[in-house]
Specification:
Blueprint: E1 5-9, E2 15-19, H1 32-39, E3 46-48, E4 55-57, H2 62-68, H3 70-74, H4 77-86, H5 90-95, E5 98-103, E6 118-130, E7 136-150, E8 156-166, E9 172-173
Parallel strand pairs: 2-6, 4-8
Antiparallel strand pairs: 1-2, 3-4, 5-6, 6-7, 7-8, 7-9
Helix pairs in contact: 1-2
């Protein structure tokens, strides 16, 4: 699939990943198998966090975890569609990530894959809201926490996106997105 993704800066100087297409649509449910298959294109890639200059790798486990995590299964409606469509901007979400925080590994099952704990980063993305004619009416902005595992080989691997929150005070009209 072609990606139509840009990084823009809001009026506060904060970066936002602007995702211009809604690839994962559906009236009721998201087809998470399609999202998982889409994410496989990033497997084996590495992306650099601009703020910390750290390299984040995309491992083989990422597409499955992203699409089938407990957090994902609890999502409904607009939040589920936001997470599904955020998959299009994974490289850019990593690039603009901020506010790195360390967290100890708390589950024995992760002793191997997250031996040195976890890192959380914050990031933001925007998705278009379309009118009845399919024209972009405005964009909704979302704030997310990205979870990276610090593996036994010393590398940071993208693990999941969680805590998706719509920034209700930060909506912008489509004509604003070109500035």
């Amino acid at each position: 699939m072609d990606r139509n993704v840009n990084i823009i800066t809001d009026t506060d100087g904060s970066k936002i990943v602007l995702i211009n297409n809604i690839e994962f649509k559906g009236k009721r449910n998201v087809d998470w198998k399609n999202v998982e298959n889409y994410l496989r294109q990033f497997t084996g890639e590495a992306f650099i966090v601009e703020e910390s200059k750290e390299v984040i790798y995309i491992g083989n486990d990422f597409p499955d975890e992203y699409s089938n995590s407990n957090y994902t299964h609890r999502l409904k409606g607009a939040s589920a569609k936001a997470k599904a469509n955020a998959a299009q901007g994974i490289p850019e979400l990593i690039e603009i990530a901020t506010n790195k925080e360390y967290e100890l590994n708390r589950k024995e099952k992760h002793n191997k894959d997250a031996r040195y704990g976890w890192y959380r980063y914050e990031s933001r993305f925007a998705l278009p809201v379309l009118d009845e004619n399919g024209k972009v009416e405005r964009y909704n902005i979302y704030h997310v926490l990205m979870l990276m595992r610090h593996s036994q080989n010393g590398r940071l691997y993208m693990y999941d996106i969680m805590d998706i929150k719509k920034e209700t005070s930060k909506l912008f009209k489509s004509e604003d997105s070109t500035q």
